[in-house]
Amino acid sequence: MALRAIAWHADGVANSPSGDSVTERLVRVLETFTPTRTAQTATEIGRRAGLPASSAHRIVGELVDAGLLERGEDRRIRVGMRLWELATRSSHALRLRQAALPFMEHVQARVREHTQLAILDQDDALFVERLSGPDAGANVTRVAGRLPLHASSSGLVLLAFGDRELQERVLAGPLKPLSRATPTDPQALRRKLDEVRTLGHALAPGYIEDVSTGLAVPVRDETGRTVAALSVVLPRDAQTEFALVELYRAARGIERAMGARR
């Protein structure tokens, strides 16, 4: 019943005084949850979503009734298992992750730092898996976390092998720095993308943190289109040749595994 009620409102029957639809407000509510903000009060959700308190409490209540959000014993709201279930039923990212995980585990066993898989989503690198060694160095990446395309090795691969419209949109800026080494000049970034296409991989020393280097290669589908970036995060002064060989080998394995599933 709650899902039908939400769908009925989302058809446009009810809108806020500001003119935004219920669907837009639902999305804003869900977007208040982040990899580091996993539990909130309804009041906090309303403030972050830009909603009046009464609207926030009503929408949160409907989402809890539908199982899309959950209310804990501490009265704080968390993302519900029902939302996870619906999101993963036909998720391309989930199928990609399942195909990639055995090959990522092999890379991780050999490199013993951080191994990551990212896809392009809304002009960001969205990380769908990360494996880390117990003694691995610094890494800000989280599963379901995002990084700007210009500021990480995975993002550079997705951008360099993406379509021209995407590249020009990102190059138009603003290119915000995450560290002193992050490229923020459009011409410098354009040269970097040329380098990535020439070499077939992206090296990003200190782009996110001064102490780390990102190294990424593309994962392609049967048409040759880049659908993901496979990367490792190494200490800044580490040699990259061995890790690069492992990444290329794993990327080809993922491509074969994805092809076998189609």
SSE layout and pairings?
Blueprint: H1 2-13, H2 22-31, H3 42-49, H4 53-66, E1 69-71, E2 77-79, H5 81-88, H6 92-111, E3 114-121, E4 124-132, E5 146-148, H7 153-160, H8 164-171, H9 186-199, E6 202-205, E7 212-220, E8 226-235, H10 241-261
Antiparallel strand pairs: 1-2, 3-4, 3-8, 4-5, 6-7, 7-8
Short description:
With 262 residues, the chain is α+β, with helices and mostly antiparallel strands.
Question: How would you describe this structure to a colleague?
Answer:
This protein has 262 residues and is α+β, with helices and mostly antiparallel strands. The chain has two domains: 87 residues, Orthogonal Bundle (Arc Repressor Mutant, subunit A), CATH 1.10.10.10; 170 residues, Beta-Lactamase (2-Layer Sandwich). It is built from ten helices and eight strands. It has a six-stranded antiparallel beta sheet with strand order 5-4-3-8-7-6, with helices on both faces. A two-stranded antiparallel sheet has the order 1-2. The longest helix has 21 residues. The radius of gyration is 21 Å and the shape is globular. The chain starts with a helix and ends with a helix. The N terminus is likely disordered.
